[in-house]
Design brief:
The chain has three helices and five strands. The protein has about 110 residues and is of the alpha/beta class.
Length: about 110
Amino acid sequence: TNPGATSEFLALLESGNELRIRLRGQLNLDNHSNLRELLEEVLNRTEQPLIILDMSGVSSIASSAFGALVDFARRSFLKQRTLILDNLSPDCERVLDLLRLHPLFNVNQN
């Protein structure tokens, strides 16, 4: 998969020191491993120090998909890159709270 391209649930926007990754659709058990692979590829092929994960298009998210995001956050941190979750839907907020993952993420509160 070419990370410059758009996948079924991921689009990239690069500008200067910022990389915006727009996620959309339902992130669940069926596609969490694909999401994990795509995010890993994006991390390996880009260099911007600031990564913004735009969740505005995510209609629902399962704990397995948040597992992929936790892994992505950890790998970003190891590469000394800042990851911010942006535009969380009420469903994303609820799952984040339920899994007690708030301390692991920088969340941009709108």
